Amino acid sequence: MKTFVFACGAAVVAQSALAVTVVEDFDSFASFANGQAVGNGATDASLFFDLTVTARNGDGLDGVIFDSDPAGPNAGSEDVDLLVDTGNVLTAQDGSDGTATPGTIFDPADDDVGFILTLDFIAPLTVESLLLVDIDGGTFTEITLIDESGLEREFDIPADFTGDVAAGEPGSFVIDLLTLSDQSSVNGTGPITAVEDDGFDQDAVVTLVFDTRGSGAIDDLVLSGDEVPTSGSLALLAVSGVLAGTRRRRA
Q1: Residue 215: which of 145, 153, 162, 144 has the closest Cα?
Q2: What is the largest CA-CA distance in the chain?
Q3: What is the average pLDDT score of the chain?
Q4: What phi and psi values does residue 233 have, to the nearest 5 degrees?
Q5: For the chain, what is the total number of helices (H) and then of strands (E)?
Q6: How many Cβ atoms from other residues are within 10 Å of residue 13's Cβ?
Q7: b/e per residue, 168-189, with b = 16+ CB within 10 A?
């Protein structure tokens, strides 16, 4: 039985003697500010994973926290297509802004050329679902899950799948990452399709790759694992720094 630690920064939504399910929503960990640079050596995006952000156009860029409240600080920005009202979402800032140092706060314009978010989890786990944001016109997107044996499950998400909330379209969609069945579009385009390598283990995922050819964001990762310590133990781990020593770093 695998045993690993989930910690504060995400809501614990279910717990039993053998398993816990949490939602990483980017709303509470480290008291994220709108425009907070995350990943690539800046502030950690999560206690559950290490984040690497790769540009498609060659420019340096980092992850960024974006407040999606329609009445919030980004209401008058150029990125109203991300205002899906789910709190903070995770995207990549415009590549022209360069790279960040810890504590950097960007004017959070999301990159519209395309980027790759690579989430390396602290231990093998199950990634049940996540919220796709702003997969709209001209944007082909892939999500790849990689298990601890290097086997993959890939989801192909067609252009305009969510549509644009600013145009009165849904703008977001919860993708089920536990199924290979087609998932119908909320915006009238082709379905999400999935394929996997023989033997892929959905309960031992170590990496998730979100690869988009345009603007977009993710939120509300639903993660589950075999065991968690008590809430008191979590607090002790967070204070003592023991958790930092348990993080999985992949070359």
Answers
A1: 162
A2: 50
A3: 80
A4: -65, -35
A5: 1, 13
A6: 11
A7: ebebbbebbbeeeeebebbbeb
Distances (CA, A) of 154 to 49, 151, 195, 230, 248: 19, 10, 5, 34, 22
Q: Considering only CA atoms, which of 129, 130, 136, 213 is closest in space to residue 171?
A: 136
C-alpha 82/C-alpha 77 separation (Å) is 10
Summarize pLDDT for 191-223 with one digit per residue, the tens.
999 999 999 999 999 999 999 988 899 999 999
Query: What pLDDT is attached to residue 232?
Result: 40
- Report whether pLDDT(64) > 60: yes
Q: Calculate the alpha carbon distances from 119 to 11, 29, 46, 167 in Å.
A: 19, 16, 10, 30
